[in-house]
From TrEMBL:
PARP catalytic domain segment(s): 69-213
The species this protein was found in: Candolleomyces eurysporus
SUPFAM superfamilies hit by this protein: ADP-ribosylation
Name of this chain's protein: PARP catalytic domain-containing protein
Lineage summary: Eukaryota, Fungi, Dikarya, Basidiomycota, Agaricomycotina
GO molecular function: NAD+ poly-ADP-ribosyltransferase activity; NAD+-protein mono-ADP-ribosyltransferase activity
One of the record's GO cellular component terms: nucleus
């Protein structure tokens, strides 16, 4: 049946019954997929939002052709600085509950309201995002652990060029170097506050600053935050 109206058969080779439902599906609620999403939000209303948040940690696959899929894909391509970007196979929305969001919102209120959307590439040791949306139990599967608890400074590599922090980048190509086609990439919302512009490696965030930015020639951007509450994953991007 049509994936939008759920009343009529799919048109041959399509997911919807016709052009009307195909157009509506581009703006559909990511949970019920039967009603239009509410403006800038991902759900049609409180009912679908409530159902989804009760199931967290949760990711919802965004159908190809949906306006949100197109937005994330275009941003990824626009952030690719070197060579040809790899083909994206799947994009998921990371669903957040209040316990996940409140520390971030409090930090943002304290440090500054501006949000930056930055990439973080990481490894996976399971089929999460490929053949399953169930998080694995492995303590060493980076992607599953990030989606359970968000990022943790305390388990970051203390030998990093800019010290023990959470690294992300405005360049999707830079982040891809850390995950490759077999890994996973997160598009995150990040609060930078006062940023120290670094020209070389340092081991701590300088006093009076909240983050460090290293941006040689605009192609190899590294942005580092040192507080767990400064970053939250928003979208998951898969390549195979």
């Amino acid at each position: 049946m049509c994936t939008y109206c759920h009343r009529r058969p799919k048109f041959s080779g399509k997911e919807q019954c016709g052009q009307t439902c195909a157009d509506k599906a581009k703006r559909a609620c990511l949970l019920c997929k039967a009603r239009p999403k509410n403006k800038k939000y991902h759900f049609c209303g409180k009912t679908c939002k409530g159902i989804a948040t009760k199931l967290t940690p949760l990711i919802l696959e965004i159908p190809k052709g949906h306006i949100t899929y197109d937005m994330v894909e275009n941003k990824f391509k626009g952030g690719w600085k070197v060579g040809t970007p790899p083909a994206i196979t799947k994009i998921f929305k990371v669903i957040e509950n209040d316990a996940f969001l409140k520390p971030y919102d409090a930090y943002r209120k304290r440090v500054g309201p501006k949000e930056n959307y930055l990439y973080h590439g990481t490894k996976r040791q399971c089929q999460f995002g490929v053949s399953t949306t169930t998080l694995c139990a492995s303590a060493s599967c980076a992607i599953c652990n990030i989606l359970k608890t968000s990022f943790k400074v305390e388990i970051a590599n203390p030998g990093g060029t800019f010290g023990q922090g959470i690294y992300s980048s405005s360049a999707s190509s830079m982040a891809f170097g850390y995950c490759g086609a077999g890994g996973a990439m997160l598009l995150n919302k990040v609060v930078l506050g006062n940023s120290f512009q670094a020209s070389s490696g340092i081991k701590n965030c300088p006093p009076g600053n909240d983050s460090v930015v290293h941006d040689p020639q605009g192609s190899y951007n590294q942005t580092i935050v040192y507080n767990n509450d400064a970053i939250r994953p928003v979208f998951l991007i898969m390549f195979q």
